[in-house]
Write a structure and sequence with these properties.
It is a single chain. With 107 residues, the protein is an alpha+beta fold. The protein has helices at 2-27, 56-68; strands at residues 36-38, 45-47, 49-54, 85-90, 97-101. The strands form 2 sheets. It has a 3-stranded antiparallel beta sheet with strand order 3-4-5. A two-stranded antiparallel sheet has the order 1-2. Bound molecules: zinc ion. It comes from Pieris brassicae (White butterfly).
Length: 107
């Protein structure tokens, strides 16, 4: 009885980790703009909701611009630009996190 229970739990853990791999593969498909896709959680055809988040590169860009153009007060500019921000995608239907697009280049 106990052994059967443990086997069942192990099977569930394997199934869960397999699902995580599938979701991670889906994460790679998102870009910087909202995309139409089938939500892996609620299986609805949705247009992702993109949230622009400040990344470490946003702060770095602000620091560099601040040092070079401090007299223009440019240091606050990157916070309003999408260019240096990570983009997190959420499902508008079930509000689950779908994936993140990370900036690779500063300029
Ligand atoms: Zn969903």
């Amino acid at each position: 009885m106990n052994i059967a229970k443990m086997d069942n739990m192990t099977y569930q853990q394997i199934t869960q980790s397999t699902n995580e791999v599938n979701i991670e593969m889906d994460l790679l498909q998102v870009g910087s703009e909202p995309v139409g896709m089938r939500c892996p959680h609620c299986h609805e055809e949705i247009m992702t909701r993109a949230d622009y988040k400040n990344s470490s590169k946003t702060h770095l860009a602000a620091l560099i611009l601040g040092l070079l153009f401090w007299w223009l007060c440019c240091c606050i500019l990157p916070y309003f630009l999408k260019r240096w921000k990570n983009v997190e995608h959420f499902c508008p239907n079930c509000r689950r996190f779908l994936g993140v697009y990370t900036r690779n280049k500063l300029f």
